[in-house]
Amino acid sequence: MKNFLVGVVFAMLWASASVATKFGILYSPPLILANIRFFVASVLLLAYGYLFNRTNSNYRLPKGKEWHQLGIFGALNTTIYLGLYVYSMKYAAAGIGSLSTSTNPLLIVLFSSWIMGRRPKKEEIWSIIFGMAGIALATYPLIKNSTTTMAGLLLLALSMISVSFASVYYARVKWELPNLLINGWQVAIGGTLLLPFTLAFGKFSTVTFNSTLLISILWLSIAVSVIGLICWFYLLKIDTVKASLYLFLCPLFGFLYAWWLMDEPISPYTIAGTSLVIFGLYLGQRKKFRSITTA
How deeply is 287 buried, as exposed, middle or buried, from its count of CB atoms within 10 A (0-12, 13-18, 19+)? Predict the structure, then answer.
């Protein structure tokens, strides 16, 4: 039950990134917003990790090959994935951004099978099929009426491929550092790698500092990049593919946020699609549900 609750909290926080980003880029270019978010999140994570755990020997600086591993993970999970994702929000609707997360389970299963030699179970395959069908149904009106460009879709597709590779890579590495430090360092390294692009292409003169931009930065930094990623890493350590199933919930929470904050209607397609996604999630987790009810 603990794992299920962590998964739901992760989905709720991760789904909020699209709407928070759409608000943020109203007052800041995407790359500048992304870099500020990364540096704020990394400072908070690393400061908390080192200042409040000084007596714990596990909370140390990375050494040797760990820098190399953190560099690869940070490039995939922060520089490429989140950099492209934030930039794509300039050309794609918030709902489409939430929808893109639904492709991760399929990509993670495929990459896991290819890289790790892990064969997906029958219930996992059916869970993905029902989840993808439900998301497609729920987002049909949004896709039909949205002002999303092909450039936006391409950027989203590339970002999803990158984060799927990052998830599989994370599961393969035998990390010795605590999750808190892994997250903090990968965000810091990823933000540093993104900085040259931000300096080259970001238009700093167009930034307008106001309460909306501040709230967007703080939410993306703390709720999404800190708390959300800690939940995600916890789920990945348990099982990469099962963790990916919670990504099916992200578009559904995304619709709720869009309805609540952006006045987007919830249609019968949304309700029908939600039912399919929940059923798909149940298929992938039903053995755990049964063990809980029979305990």
Answer: exposed
Q: Both tokens of residue 155?
A: 């950027």
pLDDT in tens, 115-152: 666 677 777 778 778 877 887 787 777 777 765 777 88
Contact criterion met (CB below 8 Å) for 61 and 188: no
Domain ranges for the chain:
2-51+63-294
User: To which residue do tokens 């439900």 refer?
Assistant: 134
SS (H, E, C) 25-83: CCCCCHHHHHHHHHHHHHHHHHHHHHHCCCCCCCCCCCCCHHHHHHHHHHHHHHHHHHH
Helix residue spans in the chain (DSSP H): 2-24, 30-51, 65-74, 81-88, 94-100, 104-111, 122-145, 150-172, 179-201, 211-218, 229-238, 240-245, 249-262, 268-294
Position 292 scores a pLDDT of 43
Question: What are the backbone angles phi and psi of residue 119, rounded to the nearest 5°?
Answer: -85, 125
Tokens encoding 99: 């929808």
User: For residues 137 and 276, is the Cβ–Cβ distance under 8 A?
Assistant: yes
Distance CA 115, CA 265 (A): 41
**Of residues 221, 176, 172, the one with CA closest to residue 72:** 172
Closest CA to 6 of 235, 222, 183, 221: 235
Q: Angle of helix 179-201 relative to helix 229-238, nearest 10 degrees?
A: 130
CA angle 198, 189, 210 (to 5 degrees): 45
pLDDT digits (tens, 9 = 90+) for 61-100: 999 999 999 999 999 999 999 999 999 988 887 877 877 7
Q: Quote the pTM value.
A: 0.81
Q: Which two tokens stand for residue 181?
A: 């430090």
Q: Tokens for 143?
A: 């896709």
